[in-house]
């Protein structure tokens, strides 16, 4: 049984050693995409899984992060790592504006209002050419000037291995934070709100305040993912704000298991290879086919395993964790 | 200073009057049974007291502070807590965590919350279940958990909503004892909505009867049960006063 | 001034159709409590169905409407029966998220299968009256829009009659008001949901054929319609057919007038902003009957 308990450490070890043994750039790229997807889904997991508020507008944060750090770089020469933090803070501020009206609503109305918000952002960014002298380029998107070599200052690396370790570290960090949150006062409050908001309120919890906190944290990390995206692909466009992307993000978390620590990671491990492989084999029409499969997986998961993959598996682990606790 | 006073409470939903010009007082540490036929407005009364609904008229004064207009979380912090007719445990949390949710109402410290939760859970006989997910408990255990949660907020007034529904005779005996213990050891004032008559009679210092949103009788259990208006409310015209 | 009136009329006509689509959503959402994110995608399916019937069988879209309606009815009934019902039965309360995600998955599939099969080109149905308009008092009224508008009103009227006069219609209304009570009265609520979903998609079949004569056809147009429909349903008040129609017309007029002053994409965001403001201030909508 000991090997089961050590599984997380083994996985971490494999992850760290991966780029050393696997040199093929295609696989490295795929691995980066998996980790990125897991990171993004984990950021959603804070508001959607732990707090149980199923936001359909998470791509708004991705977009805000990407555009913030990029514009700060292009206009104020702020290094992207710093821009990442600033972008996160901007997203947190915006999340307050989003949360305030949306948290007054429940269930499907909440989902729809978050979706409406991200669509508003998409439309505004697509149709606005310039705001106060800043050129958003609308639907054409913004290209980030290529800098040669490997540089942390520029957050650009010719050697993709750097990106791999950065996103791995980010993922480790967010999972660590999530785990600490789960058992903390905040985490227990959020779980209570998720399970039964009325009962939670009757026990003295200000549901709105804590949901807002969860959204602020979730927004911050979602935005940091946006900066990573921008610096990895060196191109950003309004489609980052689309509601379809929001659905993809939450799909990853849901398939793996929303509200669990490893759910988003498992979801990413399952879904990202699907999209990478369809891209490899079907080239031009790839975008469509990948989504057909995503749609089918979504339908199948909802029919047969709406909790996702992790919860049924983790029941076997639970006795293990009980003894640890 | 009066402890807990409800004055002239009036709550309607559209055309339906749920609570009509209702007044009552509660003394520190007393157990009040609240009875009445179904639909009498008892649960609505609880909902209004705990801030889930706003009354159109009336005041609720707890230690001279008006509760009307405050949210449920604020009211709980002031010291008034309720249990629900249909148990509402936090399914994905353990029994211990369920209690901690409530305990955190009084402290920010994880250690303190854990400790006071453990104490209450032990008091209610749930000590060996603390690491189980709340969803796995039996009904009577869930009801105890519901009570443990409420007690963990260290209330001064505890509103119990049909705690005995669905329990068998032994479990009812046990619960009655528990409620007695709670009042004896914690000094909490209790208002219990109940349909199980013999339990209500045994345990209440005083009974208030509601029918169609109004208070129709009040007094010691023996008196109330012989009151013709009360009999009429439950059994209908033929059994009422001639 | 003149163009404003013309725009307003155009907005009313389009709005009527929006309202019609919203009514179909309101039926599904209101009675069966199902958040159908695939609603727009199903409309898109109807439009393509009508398009191909025209191209392959040379049947006029308005005649093909009946075929489209029948096709969509069976599709909706089938989907409700095999996919949604098991979930409703499994989860005791109407599980909002599971069904939302299920229908989102359906939407993703329908849209991208259409994209794969038909490509991303914009298509138009070309008939004898496409692009024709009547001149009334010097203003242009586009024929297909007017026809679509009138037919929609007629169909909604028929729907109202059906709901009020027939037994099944009464069963539907009963279920939407209180499903527990309806069940106790002997109504099989699962059958009601199937029928309602079928009626909803049938209406989409009609709407698709009305739209095809003047609206472009593209695999992704469902996305615009689904959000707009939800906005209209909420604005009009859940459970109110006349509310949905009225709200649809209002949205159509706002869009149309807005397009006179700003680009059309911005008018879309205007509608979303109004939506959010409405949800916060008056969640029951303009004519809504639902209590919170």
What does this entry look like structurally?
The complex is a heterotrimer of chains A (325), B (242) and C (292). By secondary structure, chain A is mainly alpha-helical. Chain A has helices spanning 2-5, 7-21, 25-50, 59-76, 80-102, 107-127, 161-183, 185-195, 197-202, 207-233, 243-256, 263-282, 286-304, 310-324, and strands at 130-131, 134-135, 142-143, 150-151, 156-157, 235-236. Chain A has one domain (2-241). In chain A, the strands form 3 sheets. A two-stranded antiparallel ribbon of chain A has the order 1-2. Chain A has a two-stranded antiparallel sheet with strand order 3-6. Chain A has a two-stranded antiparallel ribbon with strand order 4-5. The radius of gyration of chain A is 20 Å and the shape is globular. Chain B has helices at residues 42-49, 72-78, 95-103, 110-123, 139-152, 169-186, 197-203, 221-226, 228-235, and strands at residues 4-13, 16-26, 31-35, 57-62, 65-66, 80-82, 157-161, 189-193, 206-211, 214-219. The termini of chain B are far apart. In chain B, helix 3 crosses helix 4 and helix 3 packs parallel to helix 5. The mean pLDDT of chain B is 88. Chain B contains 9 helices and 10 strands. Chain C has one domain (2-222). Chain C is globular. Residues 288-292 of chain C have low confidence and may be disordered. The interface between A and B is medium-sized, with 22 and 30 residues.
Backbone shape of chain C: globular
Mean pLDDT of chain C: 83
Report helical residue fraction of chain C. over 70%
The low-confidence runs of chain C, each spanning 5 or more residues with pLDDT under 50, are: 288-292
- What portion of the residues of chain B fall into strands of 2 or more residues? 15-25%
Number of helices of chain B: 9
Instruction: Label the structural class of chain B.
Output: alpha/beta
| Class of secondary structure makeup of chain C | mainly alpha
The main sheet of chain C comes to: 2 strands, antiparallel
| Helical stretch tally of chain C | 11
Cα-atom Rg of chain B, whole angstroms?
A: 18 Å
Instruction: Domain count of chain C, please report it.
Output: 1
Query: Which quaternary structure do these chains form?
Result: heterotrimer
Strand order, main sheet of chain B: write it out: 6-7-8-3-9-10
Query: Termini separation of chain C (Å)?
Result: 42 Å
**pLDDT under 50 segments of chain B (min length 5)?**
none
Please provide the count of β strands of chain B: 10
Mean pLDDT of chain B: 88
